[in-house]
Amino acid sequence: MDSDDPRIPLLGHPRGNRLRRAAGKLCSLESWKRRLPITIWLPNYSLECLFRDAIAGITVGLTSIPQGIAYAMVAGLPPQVGLYSSIFPGFVYVFLGSCKDVTVGPTAILAALLAKYVAYSQDFAYLASFLSGCIILLLGVLQLGFLLDFISKPVISGFTTAAALQISASQLKSLFCIAGSSGGTFIHSLVNFFKNIKTAQLWDSVLGASSIVFLLLLKRLTLGNSLEKVCQYVVRARNALLVFAASILAYLLHRHGSTPFALTGKIEGGLPHFGLPPFSTVVNNQTLGFMDMVAVFGPEGLVIPLVAILESIAIAKAFGIIDSIIVGPYFIERLLMGGNYLVMLQGVIQHFVDDIHTPSVTE
């Protein structure tokens, strides 16, 4: 009888044996350990590591507050969305993360990419996060990490440089508290800046310029050998120190009836409502379905998950040189399967409960 006869039981067929071996490998203890890296490093975790991680966590946490708010503003989202996106991924990455050096949460480049779609409705941001997580997860399951090796360094460098210019130009409005729109492109941002430069606020400009100088000076701070460790902690905590000092200054001035600086204002408290992202939205009194929203993303929407992957891998490779980590296809698959579950998580953090709902951009 022919070996391809469909009447032969599948498990008795050579193909069935391969399928059984693949299923056994997938369900093995070693396979699940790779999916949950915490089971590998936690048994060897020491109190010294806990102390160092506590210092690093507090420093990064304080830094994430202004960064999250700033990235939300870059994307055109409410400030609390940036805070949620900075906090929740860290809890997930503890269990699923495969690289201690990877930064999780919102980034400047991703915020700039989302701004174009948030201009229609902030529902696009939630759906983009969810779909990006699904795409990244699929790449990890199919073990397609090797495809990223074909993306050349000039392409990554050019894209990163262009994004940095766009982000810098879009922040000129907030830096000098200038009237008008921040602009959707690099050229529009510069045109708006020079067009409305006469509306710049003196004290906001002074505070912004002073903050930049403060960060640059602290980055190059060097003291004697006896204070070298103290110097290192100060340099690493410079962002948190700046936020703390500027907040105290603004609070004291506000208490005495003086508000020379433009403040963020009240940020709604409470936890967001968890659920699936919106698969339809309303833009200019017109309802857009799921396929309509996907059409708005277009081919350019595929750049979002690609950038999320490249940023993580770039950081892993940069620190891998120091820590002797080999960033190959296997490592990339672990990264895709592990840390990027959290991208999908950000997509399910969608609307807030009714009593703390924030109006969308189009409202």
Q: What is the overall shape?
A: globular
Distance between the termini: 70 Å
Note the total helix count.
17
The radius of gyration over CA amounts to 24 Å
Low-pLDDT windows of residues? 5-11, 321-334, 336-363
Membrane topology: Multi-pass membrane protein
Subcellular location: Membrane
Protein name: (apollo) hypothetical protein
Domain SLC26A/SulP transporter: 50-322
List the topology elements.
Layout lengths: L13 H13 L2 H7 L2 H4 L5 H29 L3 H18 L11 H11 L4 H19 L11 H18 L1 H5 L9 H10 L6 H18 L8 H9 L1 H18 L25 E3 L2 E3 L1 H8 L5 H21 L5 H9 L3 H8 L15
Antiparallel strand pairs: 1-2
Helix pairs in contact: 4-5, 4-6, 5-17, 6-7, 6-8, 6-15, 7-15, 7-16, 7-17, 8-10, 11-13
What would your notes on this structure say?
By secondary structure, the protein is mainly α. The chain has a domain at 34-154 and 277-356. The chain is 62% helix and 2% strand. The chain has helices spanning 14-26, 29-35, 38-41, 47-75, 79-96, 108-118, 123-141, 153-170, 172-176, 186-195, 202-219, 228-236, 238-255, 290-297, 303-323, 329-337, 341-348, and strands at 281-283, 286-288. A two-stranded antiparallel sheet has the order 1-2. It is globular, with a radius of gyration of 24 Å. The N and C termini lie far apart (70 Å).
Describe the structure in brief.
This protein is mostly helical and 363 residues long.
List keywords for this structure.
mainly alpha; 2 strands; 363 residues; single chain; disordered C terminus; SLC26A/SulP_fam
